[in-house]
Amino acid sequence: MGDADETFENADAGASEVIPMEAGQIRKGGYIVIKNRPCKVVSVSTSKTGKHGHAKCNFVATDIFTGKKLEDIVPSTHGTTVPNVFRSEYTLLDITDEDYLSLMDEGGETREDLKMPERPEELVKSIREGFDAGDSLILAVVKAMGEEHVMACKKDTS
């Protein structure tokens, strides 16, 4: 079959960035990919079956990273894609002069590859002020479709 010393150069953990799903199965509050962007569904309206056969789902969604409103119309029986969205929490250790964040996960692993978010302004302000005040901050990081962004900040009360 194959050699024991075969290597797979492009192997990953096996987690796909998107999964296929029938459009009629997607609900408000769920996720959908519109214009190659991961979005959270704000509303779904379904039109009745027309003269040419298919009921259509009209999706209104917001990009989970930029907050932009996007719309798409898909026949309810056709397939579309849903992003795999991962959320993790990190303790903020430091902010570099170049605005990179030094973060530590629950297992004690550190990472320094995420930049300080640029917006919303309230999030940036709460991270800066909390860090400058010496508070222990927990940052929520959302990852989808190859993008990662800090989405929330809270004080560690433990």
Automatic annotation (TrEMBL):
What processing steps or modifications follow its translation? Answer: eIF-5A seems to be the only eukaryotic protein to have a hypusine residue which is a post-translational modification of a lysine by the addition of a butylamino group.
What's one GO-annotated cellular component?
Answer: chloroplast
* GO terms under biological process: positive regulation of translational elongation; positive regulation of translational termination
Main localization, broad class? plastid
Tell me the keywords, alphabetical order. Answer: Chloroplast, Hypusine, Plastid, Protein biosynthesis
Q: Where are the transmembrane segments?
A: none
Q: Which Gene3D superfamilies match?
A: 2.30.30.30, Nucleic acid-binding proteins
On the tree of life, the source organism's domain of life is Eukaryota
Q: According to its UniProt record, where is this protein located?
A: Plastid, Chloroplast
Q: Nucleotidyltransferase as a keyword?
A: no
Q: What does this protein do?
A: Translation factor that promotes translation elongation and termination, particularly upon ribosome stalling at specific amino acid sequence contexts. Binds between the exit (E) and peptidyl (P) site of the ribosome and promotes rescue of stalled ribosome: specifically required for efficient translation of polyproline-containing peptides as well as other motifs that stall the ribosome. Acts as ribosome quality control (RQC) cofactor by joining the RQC complex to facilitate peptidyl transfer during CAT tailing step.
Q: Which PANTHER family match?
A: TRANSLATION INITIATION FACTOR 5A FAMILY MEMBER
Which protein, by its recorded name, is this?
Eukaryotic translation initiation factor 5A
Report the source organism: Pelagomonas calceolata
